[in-house]
Fold this protein.
Amino acid sequence: MDTRLLSPAGWTAVLAALFVAAVVVPVLALAVPPGSALHLPEFYVSLTGKILCYAICALAMDLIWGHAGILSLGHGLFFALGGYALGMYLMRQIGRDGQYRMDMPDFMVFLDWKAFPWHWALSDSFVAQALLVLLVPGLLAFVFGWFAFRSRIKGVYFSIITQALTYAAMLLFFRNETGFGGNNGFTDFKRILGVPIATPQMRVVLCVLTALVLIGFFVMSRWIVASRFGRVLMAIRDAETRVMFSGYNPVHYKLAIWTLSAVMCAVAGALYVPQVGIINPSEMSPAASIEMAIWAAVGGRGTLVGPIVGAVFVNGAKSWFTVTFPEYWLYFLGTLFIAVTLFLPQGLMGLARTLGQRVRRRDGPR
């Protein structure tokens, strides 16, 4: 059996250990009295859940960029759509607990709306909105990808139009008349499935659920990459023209992985909203989508584990910098991306692999 740390089996074991820690530690820490040194504040449980949501997005980015060669700068749109879909349900659950004591969300009452817009028709049903978390981003990605891939748009041109699509959606959601809360978006959530959200127990449940979803997506991604479908994707990434001459239609493969990646981001967005407590159009900003690409690049695209590590590393550093040195965070992020591009083209995973090889050569037979 191959037990080296940097082998696929080794990284699977490391990842499983990290996820077990992410699931068990919050539960045990919250059971410890607040005065104990082992007590984990609620803030860190929510922060862990938030970073795990970002890790799902990084994994989705790696499937299309690292394994299919499709660089998207618009995946923030799918993340936000998933968040808005669940956020609509959460806003309906506020009910008469809102500021204006009405059945409608406060922002609709403030704007003197007399009835819900048509797209809020199913918002009082958790099952319906959960399905919309998958269907709306998936359908949008499928339609967009169908026209883009059939037109053989790729490379930097594809990246530009994905960013343009996201920016257009952001401007649309900023408008009050669309019924999505305008600049402020959705916030002040109270309950989910009748259970209060702002309790330590619910925060732990959401964090654990996010970790389990990430594990599931990772296992699914490993299966896809190791399958014949995954091998064709990597062939498309390296030489799409040769794949076409070999009798394969790249459109079908690219469209399938593109749509799946969008749905993964939407699920991450839906898990993000109840843990962070807000969703607004800023999640669709070009910077948010670019950061997803940075996570994949920093960790090491094409490795599956690397983008997850990159998302954890970058967002962990962001949490520390924005508290300790808030004015220097953007400088750090820019410097990190430039350094990775120039000196670590394979990201942190590539660096770890190189160091591991040096150790094995040094400790090998002489």
About this structure: The chain has a mean pLDDT of 86. Strands lie at 186-187, 191-192, 195-196, 278-279. The CA atoms of residues 48 and 207 lie 7 Å apart.
